[in-house]
Amino acid sequence: MNFERMITELGFTTTAPVGLHSYLVVAAILFSMGLASCLLRKNAIGILIGIELMLNAAVLNFMAFWRFSGGVGGGAGPMAAIVLMVMAAGEAAIALAIFLNLFYNFTSVDVEQASNLEG
Amino acid sequence: MLPLLESMTVLQLAITIFASPLIAFAILSLSHHKVPRHGDWLAITALFVSFICSAEIFLRSFASDNPVMLNLSYSWLPLSAKHSLSGGILIDHLTAIMLVVVTLVSFLAHLFSVGYLHDDIRYGRYYCSLLLFTTSMLGLVLANNLLYLFISWELVGLSSYLLIGHWYEKKSASNAAIKAFITTRVGDVGMFLGLLVLYDQIGSLQYADVFAAVHFSADLATWQTVAGLGLFFGAMGKSAQFPLHVWLPDAMEAPTPVSALIHAATMVAAGVYLCARMLPIFDAQTLLVIAYIGAFTAVFAATIAIVQVDIKKVLAYSTVSQLGYMIMALGVGGYTSSIFHLTTHAFFKAGLFLSAGAVIYAAHHEQSILKFGGLYKKIPITATCYLLCTLALIGFPGFSGFWSKDAIIADVLHYNLVGSGHYFLGFAALVTVFLTAFYMCRQYFLTFFGQPKDEHLHSHAKDPNWTMTLPLIILSVLAVFFAGGGHWFPEYAPKKSGFEQVLQMTASEANTLELSHTPTAGKHQNSAAHSSEHGQIIDAHKLAMMLSTGLAFLGILVAYLFYYQNSKGQTRFSAQKVAERFPFLYRLLVNKYYLDELYHFLFVRSLHACAQECQEFDRKVIDGFVNLWAKLTMMATALVEACDRIVVDYYLVLGLARSVTRAGNRASALQTGKIKAYFVFSMCSVLALIIVLFFIV
Amino acid sequence: MEKLLLSLIVFLPIFGVAIILFLPAARLQLIRATATITCALVLALSVYLVYIFDPHAANTGTALGGFNKATLIELPWIKSFHIYYRLGIDGLAVSLVFLTALLSFLACFIAFPIKLQVKAFFVLYLLLVTGMMGVFMSLDFFLFYVFWEVMLLPMYFLIGIWGGERRAYAAIKFFIYTLLGSVLILVVILAYYFKMSALGLNEYAFNIPELIMRRPFDEHPTVGWLQIVLFFCLFIGFAIKIPVFPFHTWLPDAHVEAPTAISVILAGVLLKMGGYGILRINYPLLPEVASLSWVMYFMALLGVINIIYGAFCALGQTDFKRLVAYSSVSHMGYALLGIAVLSNEGVNGAVFQMFAHGISSAMMFMIVGVLYERAHHRDLNRFGGIARQMPNYFALAVVAFFSSLGLPALIGFIGEILVFLGVYRYSAELTGIALIGLLLTASYILLTMQRVYLGDPKEAHNSYRDCTVWEYCALVPLALSSIVFGCFPGLLLDLVKNSSAAFVKLFS
Fold first, then answer.
1. What is the pTM of this model?
2. Which residues of C touch B165 (CB under 8 A)?
3. Can you say whether the dihedral through the CA atoms of C226, C228, C234, C237 is positive or negative?
4. Do residue C450 and residue B623 have CB atoms under 8 angstroms apart?
5. Does C389 touch chain B (CB under 8 A)?
């Protein structure tokens, strides 16, 4: 199966203007990348980046649905996006602080080593 | 003094009679230990006042034709707005006679006690009880209704109890007191039942109402018989009739003046008084029962008396026997003769008891006649008084007892002569005359004649001082002359003595109270006393006089032969040998026909056994049941507690906790501490969620 | 003043409690004096109540008769359930109020020798007085029940703390028995409440006079099983207090273990509550059941059994106090018998008997107590000859014993004769059996007197002093009232007769 046909089957046309589907695909790709990075990487920073990616995938979805639903629900989409972005920023700050502490305690940011929460 | 007495109304006199001993009792019972001589002077004065007033009432009633001098009622026991039980005073001839007898004998007994009990430790208390007795006895006589009579009846029982138990340190005394109270109370229960029947039928306990109701009741109703028998049962208890006589001989544990006053002259005569008072309500069958019981008691007690050796016990059985006479006389309708004998008997028997008291006093409280002997010379006054009273009791011609006993025997014989059958009554009356003469003379000979048996006792004996001899003398004078006097051998003519005439008036007045002029025995055609066949009465009197005099002399003679000791201390015949000849009979008599033992076995033992059973039942069965319940409850609670501990606590509460712990331990394996794993879990969960949400729901 | 009088009598002891609570526990004399004075005030008020009480007042429509309107009081208490604070008296209640006041005052003197926890004792004692007074006065079913329970609790502690050796057993037995009774009464109260609600008469659900008048369960002319069940629930509730055979076994234990003063109250007043409950509530509420012929016979039979059985048990005792306790069983049998036959004489007799038993049994218990104070045992077989050592005490004992025996001219006689007058009209054979009780009573009384007082004085008793002043204070008034009421029974019966006539009328 070639790539082009797959895109067509998903409802995308290369020639058509960019539609909802394209956004969703991009967001899905982003999310998957973020998830993969979370699951596969050992480095905490990497994981953080993966999380940020997943968040941004969500933000993208919010905006896409808002845009293609004709602005139903007022400014709910952008508002959620903004909130998420702010949250992501805060999260990043806190996560970085935690990582710093992690580093002080374990002299690395390898999450495999920080397993003190084991029950 | 006299004008004051004359100015008083009958009611005032009656109140004085009743109140003066009552007040004395109240004062002495509160403060006898504070007044000089423990207040004996107060008691005697009070009794003297009572006596004077009684005498005044008696004289007035003698003079008056109106039989009922006073009949006053007032509401005593209110039961509802309209209905109440009344109390009240009745004074008629019968009451007047009884008042004199009671106050006089009581006064003399009080006086006698001063000497007899002068060194007693409970001298004051003794007078209190004696006053209580006199007060209640007066109440009994004055009552105009059965309720008051019953109240006084019980109160005399109480004072009798207290006085029999006067020397309660002795076990025999307190036993005798209890026996007296319980035995008379057995009779009282019957009397109480009679009261209930009368109240149920009539709605009132006033004599007048009762007699009216009896008179107007259409025919011989059963209730009348029941009420009559009930009341008579009460009288049997009080007057010591067979089979309730057993208490009286034991009651001789009381100080001798008490025996004279209560157990000879007055209280025991209360039963006779009751029967006389209630004579109109007895129907023919009841009267027959009364007559037979009286007759049987008379003989029965006399036979016991001939072998007794305690001077007071002989007199006690003699009292029982004489009371039997009175009861028998009432049973054959001899109202007059019965009351007449009651009066004379009160005097001579009180005299005998007080004389016996003087003997006992002289002999330093020795009571066995076998230890006396030859006392005549040492205590002549006592011996003379004793002799006079004995002769009166025997019915020696001319003495008061002769007239009264003759009247009774005449009534009984007449009852037989008019053809009623029932010859037992006449037979019993005559046999008793013989027996009486025999045992009284036996006692007299053994006590006063012959050789002294106990030198010490004999040498110290002497006549007592005037407080003791004066009552003796007064009573023996009365015993001789009371029948009206002057009738020494009146050629077998049944001339009525003056006193008997008063009594005849009383008899007619019993009919007045009955609101009818039909004699009591109208329903009882065979009855002799009220029959107008004069000739038969005269015949009966003649026969009675001859037979009774003859038998009395025979009795004296037999006693003389057996018990009179000549100067060598020998008797003609030996009583001992007779006793040995008939050992069974002798033992039977000495042991009073074993009645005490029989009662003890039948009633006392079974009562105690029953009480024990009840108490065991209560403790074991009922309480056992309660305790069993308690135990079962405790067991149930133990069970519940165990269930609580094992099932709830162990399995449920702790078990839950344990399983949670266990589950936690298991689940903690999931907690790897590896952040990757967490990611995987959450992703898996999200996936699962999605699957659930999209595909299953 | 009249309006307040009943409430004052009921709640004055509570003021006494308040005062005692503020007194230091060590000031024994002060505490005793306060309690005694409180009781004296209650007595004074009760006497005033008797004085202003008009026995001839017409029935006030309550079918109870002789109620004194001037003293009737009715205030809403728990409005939503129509529960009222409602007090009133009639001849029956007023006589028992007077008895309660008298005995609670006199028992104070007997309680003086108590050394243990004096403060607590008198606090509970005064609470008990309030409870008793309340029971006799309340005309509201709920209020009645509250007072009934108020009286129960202090009694439990009074027996359980100040009692003899087996006090715990006795107290619990007493409590459980009486609680069982209370529960049965409560069931009936609820039954009446729901029935009245169903009839739309919520307003009168607890109003005793109205309940008596309206008879919500009446199904004239038939008598349903529900009425019979309710009747017997109430009866057992009150019978336990009287006590009626076979619910009587708490009484000997409670009496024997309780301190003298409490025995006095127990016998003198608490037993009367059973009789009072039957007269005020049980019979009037369900007269159609009470006048069923088999119920009448059953009740009378129970009365007779009580008389005979109690007397036999008393005869078999060797413990002085237990004997007196059983004599109470026997004597209260007369009261039950008098009530059962529903006649004027019988009811008057029953009320008089209750009053008389209050006086005589209280005196008997005091007599026992006085002796126990000195001998520290109650074994009849070990006494003897005490009359010599304690003559004045003996004189008082004679009055007490003979009052109990039912000797005429003392208080015990009147009740007995009235009861018998009533009973004979109902059944001759029951009368015959009950009359045996008179003999048994005489037997055990006289035998006891002999065993304790008569006989040779014993060395061991030489140290016994005659009564103390306080003992005289307690005993002499009772002896006097025994004589006064015995000689002038009209004093009491004039108060009672209209009420009992009204009571009897309910059944005609």
1. 0.84
2. 454
3. negative
4. no
5. no
